Amino acid sequence: MQSRTDLETLPLEIVTLESADLPDALALQKMAFMTEAIRHDDYQLAPLEECFAAFAQEFRVKTFLQAKLEGALVGLIRGHVADGTGLIERLSVHPAHRGRGIGAALTLALETALGCARCELFTAAGSANNIRLYESLGYRRFGQPIQDSSVPLIRMEKL
Ligand SMILES: CC(C)(COP(=O)(O)OP(=O)(O)OC[C@H]1O[C@@H](n2cnc3c(N)ncnc32)[C@H](O)[C@@H]1OP(=O)(O)O)[C@@H](O)C(=O)NCCC(=O)NCCS
Asked: Is the domain covering 12-158 a CATH 3.40.630.30 domain?
């Protein structure tokens, strides 16, 4: 459900990321995930540690979408298909532009781009706002929590 978004009035574009935008996109991801680092007191989260070479390699094999507001990069998401399931990863929205529906719009756009009947993602068990956002989009918790990361994670799926 996307009832609280104001996307019809927001001059927001969601488009495929271009290779020329990779440096800005990685910087945006790191800025976005600082919120999670502060929340969990863990500054070595994988999205913060990702180097440019690894990011560029991901770009070659996954679908990357960016959100642009009046031409400025404000959001990013990536994903790919594995065994028929759409895997949604590293949703990032610029801190100054949160609460406007950009995260929801990016997630829905990536689901459409991947074109799978089932999508899956994981998020921090302690990030209530992330969980609420994904639940509002139709995701539900499933399976066992992922315990082998520094921050406990839960899996969510949308059928
Ligand atoms: C998680 C994250 C991507 C959400 O991005 P966002 O653009 O703020 O997401 P949305 O705006 O779609 O939704 C956030 C909230 O704003 C609300 N909202 C959306 N449009 C709105 C509007 N026009 N007016 C008021 N509220 C609105 C949503 O309902 C949601 O509310 P809730 O917190 O009560 O559930 C962002 O906080 C972020 O980058 N966090 C750090 C990285 C991270 O944790 N990523 C997720 C990894 S799994």
From this structure: yes
pLDDT at 23 over 90: yes
For 58, residues 6+ apart whose C-beta sits below 8 A from its C-beta are: 50, 64, 78
Mutate which of 5, 133, 136, 151 for ligand 1 pocket (most atoms within 8 A of beta carbon): 133
Residues with CB under 6 A from ligand 1: 4-6, 32-33, 35-36, 91-93, 98-104, 123, 127, 129-130, 132-133, 136
Extents of the domains making up the chain: 12-158
For the entire predicted model, the pTM comes to 0.93
pLDDT at position 7 is 65
Site of tokens 């089932």: 118
- Candidate of 48, 93, 137, 146 to mutate for ligand 1, largest count of ligand atoms within 8 Å of Cβ: 93
Q: 29: CA distance to ligand 1 center in Å?
A: 15
In angstroms, the CA 146 to CA 122 distance is 9
Whether residue 68 has pLDDT greater than 90: yes
**Under a CB-based contact definition with an 8 Å cutoff, are residues 19 and 55 in contact?**
no
pLDDT at 2 over 50: no
